[in-house]
Amino acid sequence: MTFPPVLLADDLVRPAYGAATLADVLPGVTAALGAPVHRAGLPVDPLGLTDVLAGARRVAVLLVDGLGADLVRAHPGIAPALTALASPVGDLSAPCPSTTPVSLATFGTGLPPGSHGVLGFVTDVPGEDRTLNHVQWTDDPDPLQWQARPTVFEQAAAAGVACAVVGPHTFARSGLTRAAYRGARYAAAVSAGDLVAGVHESLAAGSRSLVYGYHADLDLTGHVRGVDSASWRNQLGVVDRLVEQLVAGLPDDAALLVTADHGMLDVPEHARFDLDQVPELAGGVRVVAGEPRARYVHAVPGAEADVLATWQAVLAHRAWVVGRDEAIASGVFGPVDSAVAARIGDVVALARGSWALTATEREPFPSTLVAYHGSLTATELAIPLLAARGTALG
After folding, report:
1. 269-372: what fold?
2. Is the pTM for the entire model greater than 0.90?
């Protein structure tokens, strides 16, 4: 997948959709299970998972929210089970923005964000003068219309693969669950131990099984306490024990993959730029969406050029700030369907370095977090793909 030579900031990275991203995992797993997958022109298995998973009739994929590849490598003593797993294809890339709703929709559909349309943590709902928080989403907008592409689970299930999602019970009927995972049976988990049991139980269903497990606590701990904290390191140990239990209980003909939705980094106080304290940034602005490291700015009609110039001048070295058309042309979202393009801001601001574009008046709690993600630095994008195989598979 190639794009015109629109330059990113030199410390930001364009995700390699169709080559080595989170979008490429589930299509490759499904192909390895013998089910056809359609990816809007992208290769079905660019990671070579058909070979990695050769012989497996049951595959579980565990996604640990916030488990960046750099963070795993930095703590081998805390995470011996993770460290012992094979890394058959190296690091993958999260999508843009590198945030959970975007990543989970990218994982579930096997498509870049510009194709599935879940384009941020909070995005504008075009023509309705309101925003959508994808984590708090229920049924408005309709998930089947907001994200209209078939999921990989739907395609696998149609080919006779028993598909299940094991995740938090609070997400069972969320809009994001229906947008990203439809086609799979949802098995609600109430704890880490319950997640392990649910994955093992679901793997036993059918002659071919695809099971996806999601674990959220590491990301939450990082946001609130920081990734350079005793709390985060302790939680990584909990995740490592969870992985150890999953591997120990794998059926003989099953394989486990472990991946993540993004990395994350601590933001020091001196790198917090409060948008609410700079009055000129409000001129001509209808709404500011996104999150502290990935902002979408929607201008009042006719003010787009002025808003772009002001944000570029004020943010300067702190962010890569471009208009919508340039952001789309850069390829950071993959090909963008015209039906979803307006969900991207008239101005896109992706934080550089360790900067965060907070908004202490409009977003008081998010502005107090310690660690963030959302932009395109290597640490935010790099996610692992680790593998274990049942005893019958060698």
Report:
1. Gyrase A; domain 2 (3.30.1360)
2. yes
